[in-house]
Amino acid sequence: MDSSNAQLSHGVYIKGSNTTNLTVVCLYVDDLLVTGNNETEIANFKGEMMREFEITDLDLISYFLGIEFKRTDEGLIMHQGRYARDVKKFKMVDCNFVDTPTTTGVNLVKDPNEKEVDVTLYRQMVGSLRYLCCTRPDLLYVVGLISRYMENPKLSHFRAAKRIMRYVKGTLDYDIMFPNNFAAKKCNVLGYSDSDWCGDKSDRKNTTAYVFFYGDAPISWSSKKEQVVASSLLM
Length: 235
Hints:
Number of helices: 6
Largest sheet: 4 strands, antiparallel
Strand content: 15-25%
Distance between the termini: 51 Å
Number of strands: 10
Order of helices and strands: HEEEHEEEHHHHEEEE
Oligomer: single chain
Low-confidence stretches: 1-5
Mean pLDDT: 86
Strand order of the largest sheet: 4-5-6-7
């Protein structure tokens, strides 16, 4: 077996390439999410699948891989409210919420002399928060920050993770709205990017981030620490 192919599998399949006949299928294990711009083509695809496999059609999407969807008169709302409320496993049900996920100018470092914490609990918290970033771009930077210390977390890293949990508790109703009027008006793609300029004091590497909007809805976001240190030469 080719080792390069063994490390990944396709999860999104696209049929068609024009504006009137496009079908997109998202596959995760035995769950299928089918969408497109032609209801007849979607119905035909479902019919073909049902003839080949034992499949249950759940109709319009309401829940998929921990992400909830709700249709309103204004548009489609995507959120992880149910997932975010599951903080009881971290014993933070009665915690006080805060207005921001982190303090201004937070600076986490690797200090070998700092007090150690429960590694398993820390990794569970970080893992839960990372998945919450699927619908919460406001969490992405700070969750990426605490993810750097999964191997050997210290007390300051654990406190930073708990602060994010406290912020989540106060923002359980945060969601992303995809308005119904996307097709009725001309929507532009608008992007923002930023960098913390050598924000990691241990290795002087930058963390860069971006978010792109289609109309008023965020459609893509990322926050990532660079692999190399950027340098410049004065001539």
